[in-house]
Amino acid sequence: MFNFSYKTQRYLILFGFLTIPVLLSLTFSYYPAISLLYYSLTDWSGLGWDMNFIGLDNYKEIFTKPEVFGALKNNLYYFIGGLVQVALSLYFAVILTGKLRGRNGFRAMLFIPYVLHSVATVIMFKNLYHMEYGSLNVLLGSIGLESWQQSWLGNKHLVNFSLAFISMWKYMGLNMVIFIGALQSIPSDLYEAASIDGANGRQKFRFITLPSIRKVTELMLILTLTGALEAFDIPYVMLLGANDTSTFVIKTVDTAFKYQNFGLASAMAVILLIMVLVFIVIQRKLLFREER
Amino acid sequence: MKREESFSFTIFKYVTLAMALFVVFFPLYSVFIGAFKTQREYYQSGLRMPADLFNFENFSKVIEIGKLGLGFKNILIILVIAVAGNVLFGTMVAYAVGRFDFKLKKPIMGMYLIAQVIPMVTTQVATFSVIKSLHLYNTMGGPIILYLGADVLQIVIYLQFVNSIPKDLDESAMMEGASLFRIYRSIIFPLLGPATATLVILKTISIYNDFYTPYLYMPSQKLKVVSTAIYSFVGPNAAQLNVISAGILIIFIPTLLLFLFLQRYIFAGVTNGAVK
Question: Nearest by CB to B125, which of A109, A173, A266?
Fold first, then answer.
């Protein structure tokens, strides 16, 4: 390569440096997304390559069977948990951006759950929620709150909250650090000017802080929404989706790999994909409107 | 922020922080003490410290029966190959896209951006058939090739760095007759060092944490990684909460150490990624 002209080298570099990465992206992102659409119109079982084109039958089945969309109700818990978590992370970000002794230590400590192994975290909470020997009930018992003791994973009305809490526990610190990054990028003279004009703390938060982090907040809310739609690990590792904790993705995975119905599963995946894309488009549109 | 905040608000801040820290550390505390207890002790002693802090029996048990050694070995192999490839492809794409103008530049960037929007979990059903037809099912090749591709976050961060390297450096190297490949290798790649450090750590954590990919693509007993090993240990041994705690503790340690020593890079990556 060393004796070629720069023009030839340029072609060689572009070709040599981009071919493999582009091929990877096409093979593992685009091709699956497109073939998903095709499979969703077939009765493919996933075993072998026999498949018949059956039109929109899979979609009809999904829209006529209430239990498929019923699973989305369980995704809702993760969304609600996510909203609470975003609010909490904003609160702690604001506190830890202001003057406070030991704020770097607090930041690091609150961030720790995010770096901990995800499956091990879920199993840790499985132990914690254990009806008889779990630390949570033991703690409640030892401070005289026996009446608060619960079957955290057995109680149908509680189990999804218990699961959504794990996701809050894990991601609060991450969102907090992202908020801190956004808060620190607000120029400090803005606050100084406001102080000179006699603004109090609450006014400064309302008229300077909030507008400056609006974009990050929007992004985070949309990630909360899509993250809730895609919830899978926590309920799956904890209970394999049993006790009415199945989310939409668990239903999809089970349809494909447990019930060997790739065609139907593909249709469910397409629907999920469309829902996610719709939300992202809505968010982008909102952002553009604001910039104009 | 000149005006002194009221005393009660300061108290409120510390109280809420203390509550948050309690919520974060209580589960960790209970795993920690549980890991050193015997099974009977676990059931009887509640939240007290273990009788013997040097009781490592649970650890050796979970490593042996839970095949954690194998899990760590396999995930290490996958990590080294996948992260190395990731850095290589990420820097290559960033150099090509950041330094040259060509027709496909915009489409390629657009391609990465849109790919990011397609949620991986939804397309697995179809990805599964791709992996199968490449004969990578139930081999380490499956997860490796899925982790290998650079993602848009990586490219965006690398591009920021490439754009901040002055073009004069390239030009003066060219005056001395360096080839473009040499410029990439000896100038661009080394100067991307800090970004590489951040991305290597974040990628390592995310691959180490991943459950879905190894679970779907490597069901074989010999190909257990840490996530799938602990997952299959818990089912048949659900009663041994103490041994499970030891396993959790072992699995927590690697990323915790990474975080404690390389905090700066992790925070940099996380904030950078969101602001894009």
Answer: A266
Q: State whether ipTM is beyond 0.90.
A: no
Complete domains list, chain B, with CATH:
7-55 (no CATH), 68-240+248-275 (1.10.3720.10)
Q: Do residues B63 and B250 lie in contact, with contact meaning Cβ atoms separated by under 8 Å?
A: yes
User: HSE of A291 in the Cβ direction (CA atoms, 13 Å)?
Assistant: 7
Query: pLDDT-based confidence at A207, cuts 50/70/90?
Result: confident
Domain coordinates in residue numbering, chain A: 1-29, 72-246
Q: Is A194 on the interface with B (CB under 8 A)?
A: no
Distance CA A164, CA A152 (A): 12
The fourth-level CATH superfamily of domain A72-246 is MetI-like (1.10.3720.10)
Rounded distance between C-alpha atoms, residue A113 and residue A130, angstroms:
20
Tell if the CB–CB gap between A181 and B275 is shorter than 8 Å: yes
**Residue A36 at interface with chain B, using a CB cutoff of 8 Å:** yes
| Token pair recorded at residue A269 | 């995946």
pLDDT bin (cut points 50, 70, 90) of residue B72 is very high
Distance CA B222, CA B242 (A): 25
User: Own/partner pairs for B262-265, CB < 8 Å, 24+ apart?
Assistant: B262/B197, B262/B201, B263/A108, B265/B194, B265/B197, B265/B198, B265/B201
CA distance from start to end of chain A:
49
Report chain A residues whose CB lies below 8 A from the CB of B111.
22, 25-26, 30
- Distance from the A215 Cα atom to the nearest Cα atom in chain B, whole angstroms: 9
Q: Which of A163, A60, A122 is nearest to B234 (CA)?
A: A122
Per-residue pLDDT of A155-188, as tens digits, reads 788 888 999 999 999 999 989 998 888 888 888 8
Measured CA distances, A257 to A210, B128, B147 (Å): 46, 10, 22
Neighbours of A282 (CB within 10 A): 12
Q: Residue for token digits 């473009």?
A: B180
| Other residues' Cβ atoms within 10 Å of the Cβ of residue B51 | 11
| Record: contact B26-A266, CB cut-off 8 A | no
Report the alpha-carbon distance of residue A137 to residue A128 in Å, rounded: 8
How far is Cα B120 from Cα B104, in angstroms, rounded to an integer?
Answer: 25
Tell me how far apart the alpha carbons of residues B91 and B95 are, in angstroms, rounded to a whole number: 6
pLDDT tens profile A215-254:
788 888 888 888 888 888 888 888 877 777 888 888 888 8
Tell me how far apart the 2 most distant CA atoms of chain A are, in Å: 82
Q: Has residue A290 got a pLDDT over 70?
A: no
Q: What is the DSSP string of B141-159?
A: HHHHHHHHSPPHHHHHHHH
Whether residue B212 contacts residue B124, with contact meaning beta carbons closer than 8 Å, is answered with yes
CA distance B155 to B174: 25
Q: Taking the CA of residue B206 as centre, how many other CA atoms within 13 Å lie in the half-sphere pointing to its CB?
A: 17
Q: How many CB atoms lie within 10 A of CB A31?
A: 16
Look at B123 and A20 and tell me if their CB atoms are within 8 Å: no
Contact flag B27-A125 (C-beta cutoff 8 Å): yes
Distance of alpha carbon B94 from alpha carbon B58, whole angstroms? 47
- Please write the tens of the pLDDT for every residue from A61-114: 888 887 778 888 889 999 999 999 999 999 999 889 887 888 889 999 999 999
pLDDT at A287: 62
